[in-house]
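hey team, just a heads up i'm posting the complex here instead of the shared drive bc the drive is being weird again. everything in one block, sequence lines first with there labels, then the predicted structure for the whole assembly after. its two chains so it's a bit long, scroll down
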Amino acid sequence: MTKKSLVTAAAAAVVVAALTGGAFALQASALRAPSASSLTALRAATWLRRYRLVDSVFRIDGGRPQHATCVQTWFHEQGRNHVGAVLRLDDGFVLLAVPPHTLASRGGTPAERSSSPLALLELAGCPRVLARSLETAARDRAARQGRTRLRLVVGATRLTLTLEATSGRPVALAVSGPRIRGSSRIRYRQLDPAVLRRLLADLPR
Amino acid sequence: VATVEPATRLAAEPRTAARLPALAWIAGWWLAGRGLVFAAALAVHALGLSGHISRPEHPLGALEAWDGRWYRMVASGGYLLLPGRQSDPAFFPLFPILLRGGHALGLGYYTAGIVIANAAFLAALVCFYVLTRELLDDGLARRATIYLAIFPGGVVFSMVYPESLVLALIALAVLCALRERWLLAAVCAAAAALGRPEAVFVSLPLLALAWQRRRALTPLERGFALGAVLAAPAAIASFMLYLGRVLHDPFAWTVAQGAWGRRFSPYGFVTAFSNLGNDLARNAWVAREVVAVVLYLALIAVAVRTGVKWPWTVGATAIVLLPLFSGAFDSVSRFGLLAPALFWGLAALGRPPAGHRLIVAASTSLLVVATLTLPYMYP
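-- predicted structure starts here --
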């Protein structure tokens, strides 16, 4: 390589390095970095999106503990497939939610029937519903982080998630809103066809 | 010094005097085009055409709609990648940085966006006119500038979108290179690529110019010229480095684009055509984008016949056709706005006075229609 070529290559390298470094510095100094709580909320949402079936034990308004199962799957409605959720409680309450058109329930106590369906689905740990709330809170910078707690506001409802310290996986949550106050512990399960058939049998419409 | 100074001033005065009418003429067309857009946007508000506008209560809500909301989100809160969902790393950082600057001066984000976009469009028209005059001829430059000022898809030049700014920077980068101010050309090319990824194709005319002039340049200048050629990819690399640092994923911008259905693949081009029937059945507005692709390719062909050099036509073709490799026609009409060769082709068609009148009449009518329909389809 001649001296002239070296000068040309060095000058080009300096220009490229200066532009790359300068542009990086501009972005780093002028744009806000995502907050730790937003990233924690996203990590929790990523955990939730790995599952379609969640078992939970929850209490509403200090009532007796209820065992609940929530499954999220596809429903064929009005010629198209939509992702929806089925929540079943041991006392016979069943809630079917398939946005944007279907919301139906059957059975249960007056407290369950009068609770906000969205808050019930969140309280039961319905994975996609909860993940979406977490992602929205992360995007809107509406999540606040404690040591193993994550607090977020979704509409008029406050959610507090307890996260596993090592993995950041949600293991418990508390919901507080105008039509519901409750807490739950959640457990993730693998979904198999037999369980899915049982959960989708005899749905309210 | 005493003798040189007046001589320089004397030489400069006629040039300035000659430039003034041209500037006034360009400002007139800018004012006319933007006047139509703003009047139509106010009509959208007055008629209550809310559609998908996020702030229908605002008189200029139509100009803040669609991607404007995303740019505002990046400006106010920075980037955040939501896997599997539409999220903001799909939007390049230059415009949000300027929105933050405007906000720091006391303007609202949306107001800052509209002010910056429209002021940058005036600068883009001036730079585009001077560039076209230098590369082609004055008559064609005038017509091309008029058509750019009133181009139907050019409604985005008044919205909270970065296209006007990026177009100004592309034209300025090549103008600087033509004047052998390579470092300034490099800065402009890098800034343009920080605004929109299509700006990477400014490297082609810069490469052609650098190659053409290589023997007249010193080794140091050749290095600066090469730096200018590589400036746009370097800026995109800096964006990826930044995303890698804050989101731990340098490819977050392509991941985020995936949520809009933009997944590039070698078969995407075929898929775009094979899915066209279904896409049209689901959303008739896709027809607008198909027409835009056909029209743009025809204009590029006219530009080639007019003598526009290959770096411009190859860049324009890539801007029009590459998005189809994502499997859809979405927004091609907007992407094409960053290809100057299209307007040069249109200007060649407008050489006969009847053709010129037809283009001006059709463009102004369609510009109004494009603004009135903003609530129903993204540009």
